[in-house]
Design brief:
Structural class: alpha/beta
Radius of gyration: 25 Å
CATH topology of the largest domain: Trna Endonuclease, Chain: A, domain 1
Strand order of the largest sheet: 1-2-3-4-5-6
CATH architecture of the largest domain: 3-Layer(aba) Sandwich
Oligomer: single chain
Distance between the termini: 63 Å
Shape: elongated
Helix content: 55-70%
Order of helices and strands: HEEEHEHEEHHHH
Number of domains: 2
């Protein structure tokens, strides 16, 4: 396969990505990729078919454009500068070079890992790591909600029939209670997912959901403390 154009270079990159394990890798629509030339469900790549070596700004841009993508790859026909190699190593970007004859070579440890065929084992390992992430996030959510109820209990003891404080406290308790119910529902659903050994994508979705619940619990705790402080001073809390 002779590489005569950037389109052919992108086709080469897509084929190579499929070969190392990204079976759904495809070229992106021209002009709409934000620097991403090839994409798969969990990986993206940029391809440079130029005369000069790729510099660190290109690596930083593609890493930034793919901040939530597990795997980022880069293909260059002209190599990389020393700065680009350093940035790629730190940002976990897999660097490859390709020749006019279509030969692809690994340049750094991330690309060497992919070239060694390790990706086929990664989904199972990643799923296990995601389960650990879910457990830690669930515990964090639980701790934050317990703290919310502790704040509410302290406010109730000090309310002394104050109407404003009582009303603000009730809103806070209702909000936290609903979140606790969502947490319990998520625990039941996720336990079933783990027992039937759901796919990595399903586990990742569960992690995303428990992350949202954790963040909501942290936000409710902060707002609850603020609102109760306003109410103790006889001031209606802001929206």
């Amino acid at each position: 396969m002779q590489i005569f154009s950037w389109q052919m270079a992108e086709e080469l990159a897509a084929a190579h990505m499929q070969a190392v394990g990204f079976r759904d890798a495809r070229r992106t629509a021209n002009g709409a990729d934000g620097g991403i030339d090839v994409a798969a469900a969990n990986a993206v790549a940029q391809v440079k078919h130029l005369a000069q070596p790729v510099g660190s700004p290109d690596i930083q841009r593609v890493r930034g454009a793919a901040h939530n993508i597990p795997y980022v790859l880069f293909y260059s026909s002209s190599g990389y500068t020393g700065a680009a190699l350093e940035v790629a190593d730190a940002a976990q970007v897999a660097l490859f070079t390709f020749t006019p004859e279509g030969e692809v070579s690994a340049v750094n440890r991330w690309s060497s890992w992919l070239s060694a065929g390790n990706l086929r084992d990664e989904p199972q390992r990643s799923a296990a790591h995601l389960v650990d992430d879910w457990m830690k996030l669930f515990e964090e959510t639980d701790q934050l909600l317990n703290e919310c109820f502790a704040v509410a209990s302290g406010a109730a003891d000090a309310s002394n029939g104050d109407m404003l404080l009582t009303a603000v406290l009730q809103r806070f308790v209702d909000r936290v209670t609903r979140l606790r119910e969502m947490q319990h529902a998520e625990m039941t659903a996720t336990r079933d997912l783990f027992e039937r050994q759901g796919s990595r994508e399903d586990v990742a979705s569960a992690v995303d959901l428990i992350t949202q619940l954790r963040d909501a619990a942290a936000r409710y705790l902060e707002l609850g403390r603020r609102d109760l402080d306003f109410a103790r001073r006889g001031v209606e809390p802001p929206d």
